[in-house]
């Protein structure tokens, strides 16, 4: 599946199928820190899986929001929300 990030308009014809969103979370522990890269990777993988499940072959207009949660005992979480439009590019 093709993932296009930040495009507002495709040059190819496409059919809009649905809006999709996914989250990714990375949590710190005794040895590792919360990692935004890992959380982003998890969110993108889930976004692609969800888009495929509705018959899309691309996700366009992808946007991200992030947050960082701090808990007691040194536990932190990096949260990433990814969302966009699942579309089916029509091959001509």
From TrEMBL:
- Which SUPFAM superfamilies would you find in this protein's record? YbjQ-like
Q: Which InterPro entries did the record assign?
A: UPF0145_dom_sf, UPF0145_YbjQ-like
Supply the Gene3D superfamilies for this chain: Hypothetical protein apc22750. Chain B
List all membrane-crossing ranges.
Answer: none
Domain of life of the source: Bacteria
For this chain, the family text in UniProt reads: Belongs to the UPF0145 family.
Under what name is this protein listed?
Answer: Heavy metal-binding domain-containing protein
Q: Which organism is it from?
A: Vagococcus fluvialis
């Amino acid at each position: 599946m093709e993932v296009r990030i930040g495009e507002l308009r495709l040059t190819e014809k496409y059919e809009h199928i649905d809006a999709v969103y996914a989250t990714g979370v990375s949590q710190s522990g005794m040895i590792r820190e919360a990692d935004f890269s890992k959380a982003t990777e998890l969110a993108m993988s889930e976004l692609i899986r969800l888009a495929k499940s509705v018959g899309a072959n691309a996700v366009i207009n992808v946007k991200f929001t992030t947050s960082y949660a701090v808990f007691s005992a040194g536990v932190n979480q990096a949260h990433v929300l990814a969302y966009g439009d699942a579309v089916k590019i029509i091959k001509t």
